[in-house]
Backbone:
């Protein structure tokens, strides 16, 4: 009489096949999770690029030659710029808030603590800037240059305090990924 059932070898082969299928399923799931994380990181980086492009483009295009005063009452140039950032006065509405404010606004773009930030002053003269808005995180460094009639400069220090540069060049080097180069006309290229 023959007994029906599985031998130990058949059972081991079935377990081996089940283990290979389970390992393949785990690998496929891991690949899917990694791809989703990489896609999310790249979409965040693209959103930061567009945010920088739209805000800086809007602010620099609406720059006006308005001299301001700092908290001590000393005059400040209409446009100040060096390697770490730049400050300008812009016309128009603030794209980040819906708060009623005068038609002119002083803003500063700078590199702070591994991030590209934007600060706005509540009033043009005699006040301190507000809290920074982070435009791009995980930034290794930035490079800024300012275009005058004579050529590019690393620092904007004109003889006339109300003189604006023709353009601003910003190069952002992220912690990961290629560097990004922006070119913005100032005051609509006036």
Residues:
């Amino acid at each position: 009489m023959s007994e029906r059932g599985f031998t130990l070898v058949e059972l081991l082969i079935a377990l081996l096949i089940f283990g290979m299928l389970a390992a393949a399923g785990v690998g496929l799931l891991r690949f899917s999770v990694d791809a989703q994380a990489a896609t999310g990181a790249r979409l965040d980086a693209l959103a930061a690029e567009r945010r920088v492009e739209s805000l800086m483009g809007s602010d620099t295009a609406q720059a006006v030659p308005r001299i301001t005063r700092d908290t001590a009452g000393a005059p400040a140039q209409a446009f100040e710029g060096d390697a770490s950032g730049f400050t300008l006065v812009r016309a128009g509405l603030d794209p980040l808030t819906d708060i009623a404010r005068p038609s002119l606004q002083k803003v500063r773009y700078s590199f702070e603590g591994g991030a590209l930030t934007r600060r706005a002053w509540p009033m043009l003269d005699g006040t301190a800037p507000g809290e920074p808005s982070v435009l791009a995180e995980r930034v290794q460094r930035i490079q800024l240059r300012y275009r005058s009639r004579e050529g590019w400069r690393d620092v904007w220090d004109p003889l006339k305090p109300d003189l604006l540069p023709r353009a601003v060049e910003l190069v952002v080097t992220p912690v990961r990924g290629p560097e990004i180069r922006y070119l913005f006309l100032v005051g609509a290229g006036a």
Q: What stands out?
A: The chain has one domain: 52-189. The two ends are 103 Å apart (CA to CA).
